UniProtKB/TrEMBL annotation:
GO MF terms held by the record: DNA binding; site-specific recombinase activity
UniProt superkingdom: Bacteria
Gene3D superfamilies, alphabetized: Intergrase catalytic core
Domain Tyr recombinase: 231-447
Stretches the record annotates as Disordered: 305-324
Keyword Transcription regulation: no
Keyword Phosphoprotein found: no
Keywords annotated in UniProt: DNA recombination
Protein name, entry field: Integrase
Biased composition (Basic and acidic residues): 315-324
Length: 457
């Protein structure tokens, strides 16, 4: 029997050992309730009840629910759901985010396969998922090699139901699998965190589709690997070391080929201006003011991160986008010191620009790839540093030049608000990440403690 006589009450907290929240409502005088672990989930469920009631839907007097909220059994397989989730996320995701989603969906899918006859080799299944299934256009929209088509057909039959993730033991097994690399060793904490985040987000979408009442992963008691949020002070180069490294870059490849010389300015931007590598790669002459003497400025508005052809809409290896975590039209004005001004002026005089105005190009005139400048950097470290320092974390990656710049500015006493503005970070993120790189704090604290103790001698 159906009724329009519906009243929805407010969310009520239950003060039990494990707090929960009740949503209560009546249909034709019959009282119904649902319990949730968090107030947010309870509010979300109550909102759906109110929308149905205000929309004029009739509620069942037995189940207490309108037809739109009757929970359906999860009828699709995990693999079919993953394809649907990917199609929803892909158009709005950045290329490197697409790559991460692909990697995560592949890992979960490999875990949720039954042992059916005719199983293809593991490497073939993974390749089929990574290069064909979880890339748009999807497998139904393009021709597939026979072995790939066979592998994906097998996956579609062997994939376990999406509903299985509602079983806590299965969900925990999937999460545990995310902690391991292909060789069985532990994956990096950041990698595990990224994969779990994708899985949680995917299952939020499953909730939206009505496949689950609430996300089955968020309720699992599972120890997440700890991600190091602070910069390791051992990677920070002092000004003398940084100058030696920049000089060494100019010797990479010999004078004739200029392989290293054309990238000195790129690395100098990371150290003297605290640019992110993708910001330096995308820098154009029009972005710069380079006076003959004194400070100049760089107006950052474009990045060229390495992504891979299969992840970009343009089919190019490098994405062309705005600043990281900022609206596409946002810009960042960065004052640049005389040392960097001089280096960039020399670079323009010697190498000019690419056709689109970019300062830095590879030897063929294209966008500088991360693998290219990484190789040059490793050769420069071998030239500039003693063997013990080469084996250490000191400036091991080009990105460590940015860490060195921000640490130097903070240690020089520059206002953190100004440092954060130039770096494109929030003050909170800046101070939390570079807390261990700020020298002198222990001496100040020790002195205060010593003065206090002397008062009682």
């Amino acid at each position: 029997m159906k009724s329009l006589d519906v009243k929805v009450w407010g969310v009520r907290k239950r003060n039990t050992k494990k707090s929960s929240y009740d949503v209560r409502w009546t249909v034709a005088g019959n009282v119904f309730s649902e319990q949730f672990r968090t107030k947010g989930l309870a509010d979300h469920y109550r909102s759906k009840l109110l929308r149905a009631a205000h929309g004029g839907e009739e509620f069942d007097t037995v189940t207490g629910l309108p037809d739109s909220m009757v929970e359906k059994a999860a009828s699709m397989s995990w693999y079919a759901f993953a394809l649907r989730y990917l199609a929803m996320k892909w158009p709005h995701a950045a290329p490197n985010t697409r790559n991460g989603i692909n990697e995560s969906l592949t890992a979960v899918t490999m875990t949720l396969l039954d042992d059916r006859p005719g199983r293809p080799p593991e490497e073939l299944i993974r390749r089929a998922l990574r290069n064909w299934a979880f890339v748009l256009p999807g497998p139904d929209d393009r021709e597939l090699p026979d072995e790939i088509a066979h592998a994906l057909h097998w996956v579609s039959k062997a994939s376990r139901p999406l509903a299985d993730l509602g079983d806590a033991a299965i969900a925990r097994a999937v999460l545990d699998a995310l902690k391991l690399k292909l060789d069985g060793t532990a994956a990096a904490a950041e990698t595990v965190r990224r994969k779990r985040r994708t899985l949680v987000n995917a299952l939020h979408y499953a909730v939206d589709l009505g496949e689950f009442k609430e996300n089955p992963i968020t309720g699992i008691r599972w120890k997440k690997p700890k991600v190091a949020g602070e910069v390791d002070p051992r990677v920070v180069a002092n000004p003398e070391q940084a100058r030696s490294l920049l000089t060494a870059v100019s010797y990479v490849g010999g004078y004739g080929r200029a392989r290293g010389r054309r990238l000195v300015g790129l690395f100098a931007c990371m150290y003297y201006g605290a640019f992110r590598p993708a910001e330096a790669v995308g820098l154009t002459a029009a972005d710069l003011k380079l006076p003959e003497t004194g400070w100049g400025t760089a107006l950052l508005n474009r990045t060229r991160p390495s992504a891979g052809k299969q992840w970009t809409d343009s089919g190019e290896t490098h994405d062309d986008r705005g600043l990281k975590n900022r609206p596409a039209e946002e810009v960042r004005l960065v004052p640049i010191p005389p040392q960097l001004v001089a280096i960039l002026r020399r670079h323009l005089d010697t190498f000019g620009t690419a056709e689109d105005g970019r300062l830095f190009t590879n030897e063929r005139g294209g966008v500088v790839g991360s693998s290219t400048y990484y190789r040059v950097w490793q050769e420069a470290r071998a030239f500039a540093l003693l063997p013990a320092a080469v084996a250490s974390p000191l400036a091991a990656r080009p990105y460590d030049l940015r860490h060195s710049a921000l640490s130097t500015w903070l240690n020089a006493g520059v206002d953190p608000t100004e440092v954060a503005a130039r770096a494109g970070n929030s003050v909170e993120v800046l101070l939390s990440r570079y807390a261990k790189c700020i020298d002198g704090r222990q001496e100040v604290v020790n002195r205060k403690i010593e003065e206090l103790l002397r008062e009682y001698e």
